Amino acid sequence: MYKYYFKSNIYLLIILLLFVSSALIYSCGANLFSVAEDVQLGEDLDKEIQANQRDYPLLKDNPQVTNYVSNMGKYIVNNSPRIQYKNVFPYKFQVINDTIVNAFCTPGGFIYVYTGLMDYVDNEATLAGVIAHEIAHAECRHMTQRLTSYYGVSMLLSLVLGNNPSAITEIAANLFVGLGFLANSRADEYEADENSVRYLMTTKYYPGAITYFFKKALAEQKASGYTPGALDRLFSTHPLTQDRVNNVSAIFKSLKISADTTKGLFTQEYQQFKTLIPKK
C-alpha cells in the first residue's frame, strides 16, 4: 500500500513539474521540434493538403499563375541574406484556387497563396510583402513553437509514461483538421511583418508594400462594420489592427528606409497579370 502511495505521488510530482516547467519554457518561446522535424511535418501536411482537393483546391492547370507565385517566392528567398534556412527548408510555393483572401505557411517553408488574395491586392510588391511575411513565419518557426505550446505537456507526459506512438502523425492529423486552431499571436505577426520588410530591402520590391494590404483590409472592415466574408479566414488566423500599420512605419523609421512609394510597386505589370487569375 505504501509502495503504491509512494509511486502515485511520484507520478503526480512528475506531472506537476512537467506542467510548471512547460509553462516556463513556452513563455520563453521554446520549440520542442528540430529544424529537420519542421521539414518533415511540412512535407506530411503537404501530402494531406494535396489529397484534400475539396478543402484545398490547388491550382494545377494554370502554370502561368502557379509559376508566377513560385518564382516570386524563390526570388525573395534567394535575394535576402537574412533568410537563414534557404538551404535547409525546401520552400515550396503553391496556389489554392479559392476566393478566400488569405495565405498560410506550414513548417519547413510550405507556403500556400489563395487566388482570392492575389485578386485582392493591387500591385506586385504587396503580394511580395505578403509572401515574405509567410516566409518569415517559416523562418521564425512560429507554427512549431505554437505546436510546442499546444501539445507540449501531453507530449512530455507520454514520453515519461512510455506511450508516445507517432506523435508527429497525430500532430499532422490534428493540424490538418483546422489550420487556424493555432492562430498566430500578435507577437508572431509583428515579427513576421518586420522580417517581411527586412527581406524585401534587398529585392526590387518596395519593402513596405504589405501596408497597402493592411490598409485596404482595415478600410473594408471599418466600412462594413464587421469582417467581410472573403476576409474571415484571414482575420481569424492573422490578426489585423492599425497597430500593425504603425509597427511597419516604426520599422521603417528605425531602419532609416526612405518611404518612396513611386518605386518598386510594379502596379501596371501586376494588373496585366491579374487577367490570368481564374475567377470562381
How many structurally independent domains? 1
The topology string of helices and strands comes to HHHEEEHHHHHHHHH
Give the helix level as a range of percent: 55-70%
Radius of gyration over C-alpha positions, nearest whole angstrom: 21 Å
- Main-sheet strand order equals 1-3-2
The end-to-end span amounts to 69 Å
β content, as a range?
A: 5-15%
Secondary-structure class? mainly alpha
Detail the poorly predicted runs: 1-27
The total of helices stands at 12
The major sheet is characterized as: 3 strands, mixed
Shape designation: globular
Structure description:
It is a single chain. This protein is mainly alpha-helical. The protein contains twelve helices and three strands. It has one domain (35-145, 176-274). A hairpin with a 3-residue loop joins strand 2 and strand 3 (110-114). Helix 5 packs across helix 8 (186-200). The longest helix is centred in the N-terminal third of the chain and has 26 residues, at 2-27.
Quick overview:
The chain has helices at residues 2-27, 35-51, 63-79, 115-120, 124-140, 142-161, 167-177, 186-200, 210-224, 232-237, 242-255, 267-274; strands spanning 92-96, 103-106, 110-114. The chain is mainly α and 280 residues long. Helix 3 packs across helix 5 (124-140).
